[in-house]
Amino acid sequence: MSKSIVPTVEFLFDIQSPWAYIASTRISAIARRTRAKILWTPVSLRETKAPKPRAAFAYSQLDLKRALYRNNLKVIFHPNNPVESLDALRLLHATPNTHREQLAHALYHSYWIKNDDISDREFLLAIAKELNIPSEYPLDTSIFTNPTIQERLREATQRAEALNAPDVPSFVINNYQNSGMDRLFCGQDRLHFVELALEQASRGVNSFKGFDNIVNYYPRCVKRGTKSDRERTLKFWFDFASPWSFLAYTQLERIRREAGDKVKIEYMPFILGVLFREIGVADIPLLKMSKSRQKYWPIDLQDWTNFWNVVDSQSDPNHKPFSFKWAKVFPIRTITALRVFLLEPKTIDCLFKASWQDDIPIGTSEEVLADVLNKGGFDGPALIQATKNNVNNVKDRLRKNTELAVERGLFGAPIFQVDDGPLIWGQDRINEVEDLLAGWKDVDQNDNEVFAKL
User: Fold this and answer.
1) What are the helix (H) ranges across 231-290?
2) Same fold, 8-211 and 232-437
3) Spans of all domains in the chain
4) Is the pTM of this model over 0.70?
5) Could you give the C-alpha distances from 213 to 82, 177, 259, 307, 357, in angstroms and in order?
6) Closest CA to 23 of 85, 84, 101, 91
7) Tens-place pLDDT, residues 75-102
8) 110 neighbors 134 (Cβ within 8 angstroms)
9) DSSP label at 138?
10) pLDDT tens, residue by residue, 190-199
11) Cβ–Cβ under 8 Å, residues 184 and 194
12) Signal peptide span per the entry (predicted)?
């Protein structure tokens, strides 16, 4: 075992981002638990994002409300949001790291609670003076045009870009796993990865050996082990073409087992490509994302693969580890595979694993698909022929599922619904799904103040 050290996490943030605001309320507690040092680093990332379809935009507002609610926070959006924050970031760079946290909290409160104008230089200086913030420069308006301070912000932003930070908040672990390299995690919903990495560094280890129940690092609002108190149905909307659906699928049995016998999973296959066309999204949304987000995607997928494998191995001694491999033939044509699943639901395991574990191009030919099914213990040719013959009206069933997905406002996969309730998008929101199954009351979608009552 290596000698333990004081780990360091660099918190990349902006005042404009409500997600960074949420992270700012959590990162200090994580640092205390892991005996880590925080470097508060303001950056001015301006990510280029593809336009969101209406359904996705509406969901992003609900997702933010839900995140605030779960963290017992509220925000009031500034009428001119987003207000320019460059001068606020420059003031932070003129402040020693020992006092940046204090100033950052004051600025977040001013902007997200009081709706103050954080672009007003006199207002910013007044906050710093009221807090007795030390500075190596005079606390007057010259601080905002000081070339040295402006260069600090530029350099911090360029470094974030060099690390492929897609957005704020992002977190950089220095000398990750003693590799001599810095490692970036993006999003307040990845803070459990950050805490695990810091705990590894604090213990001087590079693995999760000796970590008990790492699922406890993944935040919940309901005590783990709480069973569902009534009959509930968990709808799982998916397409074999979605890598994130594969990761979500690997957790469904654990979710059902931990939620108890009163929970039933209803599988809802649909054609993701048709949905994208209906709502005006590119067939491959990844290609419309920024270059930094495209580079972060596969890293994030592997992080979740590693995490879920450890969670599964700790909860089930018979767990067989799964792996993830990006499909060389992408996007995957899955219409026949989805119809096969509707005829024989037990094929789901071999079809998902062929697509995203073994990199078998199931959509390229009937022969390839049949071989996958045969090796999975099924009669592949017979199942494929049954889809052609429209046995059990399988073609209409898949079409109707896809139409229902459009009607209900889906915009991606996987999507979860508990008892036909609000949509929950993404396998990274499984903790929310588990809480709902355990009886947690979701945020009121009409609550515009977003104040949590946990």
Assistant:
1) 243-259, 272-279
2) yes
3) 8-211, 232-437
4) yes
5) 40, 20, 17, 11, 25
6) 101
7) 999 999 999 999 999 999 999 999 999 9
8) no
9) -
10) 999 999 999 9
11) no
12) none
